[in-house]
Amino acid sequence: MLSEEEPEALSETIVVEVAYALPDKQKIISLQVLPGTTARQAVRESNIVTAFPEIDVDTAALGIFSHTLGTKGMPSAEEYVLKPMDRVEIYRPLIADPKEVRKQRAAKAREERAAQKAQQKSEG
């Protein structure tokens, strides 16, 4: 990150943001970086880990405006070169696998339907 004492260098930088959010706390850090800076480098330069020490900068999933880097044809966080006004988002790991949660919900619904049918048979 460049300091404000280097005004001639500032004209050669771009402004980007690094964002991280928890359910009860969020932070967006605006910083100036050199052209050619990657998403992962910007996260390091932002020093966001001082506010959120649980972030593993080397392995955290990153995205640009809700597009996860390294998926769906997007370059990885180490390859994505930032553009002016890009927002690098740091994603928290999932607590539960969404597919597994859906399976459990469907199984529970099947069990409830079976129990209702059994109850209706016993009543009728």
Describe this entry's structure for a reader.
The chain has helices spanning about 5-10, 40-45, 100-124, and strands spanning about 15-20, 25-35, 60-65, 65-70, 85-90. The protein is an alpha+beta fold and about 120 residues long. The protein has 2 domains: about 5-95, Roll (Ubiquitin-like (UB roll)); about 95-124. A 5-stranded mixed sheet has the order 2-1-5-3-4, covered by helices on one side. It is elongated, with a radius of gyration of 23 Å. Mean pLDDT is about 90; it is low at about 1-10.
> Portion of residues in helices?
25-40%
Low-confidence stretches at least 5 residues in length (pLDDT < 50)?
Answer: 2-9
Provide the residue-averaged pLDDT: 88
Indicate the overall shape. Answer: elongated
Count of DSSP-assigned helices? 3
Any descriptors?
single chain; 2 domains; 31% helix; 5 strands; elongated; alpha+beta; 124 residues; disordered N terminus; Ubiquitin-like (UB roll); five-stranded mixed β-sheet
